[in-house]
Amino acid sequence: MTYHGKHRERRAGLWRRRAWSVAALIFLTGLLGIPLLGLAQDAAGTAATVAYRDIPQLGGSRNIIWVIAQQHLLLAGFVLGVPIFAWVCEIVGVRTGDKRYDKLAKEFTKLLTSAYATTALFGGILLFMLLGFYPKLMAYLTDIFFPSFVVYCALFLLETVTLYLYWYGWDVMQGGGKKGLHLFLGLLLNVFAFFIMIVPNSWATFQASPVVVAEGSALARAWAATWNPTWWPVNVHRLIANVVLGGFICGAYAGMRYLSANTHEERVHYDWMGYVGNFIGVFGMLPLPFAGYWLMREVYQYNQQMGITLMGGFLSWLFILQAFLIGVLFLGANYYFWLGITHRIEGSEVKYRRPIMAMLVILLLCLGVWMTPHSLVASLEEARKMGGTHHPLLGVFGVMSAKMTVVNIMILVTFMSFIIYWRAGKQVTATWAKVAQKVMGGVLGLAAIVVIVLGVWGYFVPAIVRINYFSVAQVLIVLFVLVTITPLTGLLMKSARTTTEMIWGRMPPRAGYALVLNAVMVILLMTLMGYARSSSRVHWHIYGVMRDSSQYAYSPALGYAAAFMSLNTFVFCLLVAFIFWVATMGDKAKAGEPGTKKKLPAGAYPAMAGGSPTLDQREG
Fold this sequence. Notes:
Layout: H1 2-39, H2 61-96, H3 99-133, H4 135-168, H5 178-208, H6 218-226, H7 231-259, H8 264-285, H9 288-302, H10 304-311, H11 316-344, H12 348-351, H13 353-370, H14 380-386, H15 400-423, E1 426-427, H16 433-457, H17 463-494, E2 497-498, H18 509-535, E3 540-542, E4 546-547, H19 558-591, H20 613-616
Antiparallel strand pairs: 1-2, 3-4
Helix pairs in contact: 2-3, 2-5, 2-7, 2-19, 3-4, 3-19, 4-5, 4-6, 5-7, 7-8, 7-9, 7-18, 8-11, 9-10, 11-13, 11-15, 11-18, 13-15, 15-16, 15-17, 16-17, 18-19
């Protein structure tokens, strides 16, 4: 009886467990089936008449597309930006014979190969979601751009083959004349990547600035639609932005590896890699505002209402957020340069303390002006006291004349931070050095004065004069400074005598955190401007051609959009962390093998929080 009783209890327990399992299975099946209910809502209509589909149970079609498209664009920006400076680093390594550059280029490419498949995955998901959610829109775009779809597929295939040959043939093509072939593959990789970027740009820019597509062959219609007014401004802007994104993400990767380094060799390598990543990001960031200005100028010329919506309507507050994010990015990049001066070069902290403090004050003042809104959010009582929504004192800083001026000043200050870092620890020996230094100082000082004068003068001239002449002149002046002082400094440093050797691997932990911060700021900026460009079309799929008649035919509120910007940034950071983890799995396996690398002494590991006494001992 006891046996049978226990047997019945075991069977009852087994049935209870199975019942729970069956119930859980039914629940999961029902949960997975919920989206099908959303898809079934259009089943009554035929495929030819369906304009929209939706899955409201998963947040709605627009939100799904928003997240997937943003992740794909961010990953694509990284994948298209990294090959540029990886190839340049490889060329520098060949020209100088410095193996560090070849190792650096290979490590950059290792990150690229890890991200490439993820980018393609999100691209495929995005395509299927667009076809499913917006069949009418996609049918219209396919009818116009089908020839470029074929070209895009061919380019994608060519880039994939080239990337695999470039990566897996790295070690094989090092000796003899094969290195030239490897460099040629790197060139092809960048050429294919460039065209892979500009082809889909034509599809997106056509939605914002469509042109009249006359009757003709399919190729002629696709070509006419491709050459829309904002195509090349977006191409240039996105190309530079991709370099900035790739540089700062590689810098963040180096910063994370530096913080977790176990050997002195690793710290030296990743300290140097972080410097290169920050350098690439900064030098891409300097001309980026000019490309953005060109893009907005073309938007205004194409349709003033769209430009007003962006710069003067409810989207104008996005540019205040943009100013804050770019300001933090400028501060972070400069801060990393300043840390490099004071920690890598012995005896430079006292020498450069005052210039660094002066540059910091200028950057903060410029950021304050840039962040000042034109119209303040004020209560009725506050508006009455001010005499309107414009502040009587600070209102003058809320217009574009002031903002264009401070942006150019911040670019000049950041450029000078790099020049100071470049020249620190060296003494020029060229016979013409004094003349060159006076010329460079005169060019820089005169440029700053002219930029400020044009900014003040802009208050007293018509808007058309300020936009078409004064702002363009400010841009050209700053570009002239960059292209003049950079080669002159390079020539001076070529024959300069090193007075203090630069010591790598001595940066404090906060330098690694600064690199990570820069990467996060760039990602936030790209998510913000993605929302701005999409919302500028307001209730149009294709501006002025195809109206959005779905339930989402409105621009999301700024607070709602900010939440999605943060979500997209967080998700992308998780993806990048996963890519970094995958890319370093082989390194961790090699680190476990017996070797001769010297371990760091106890207490010399960079602290993840709270600082490291060993690294910060020079700050006391």
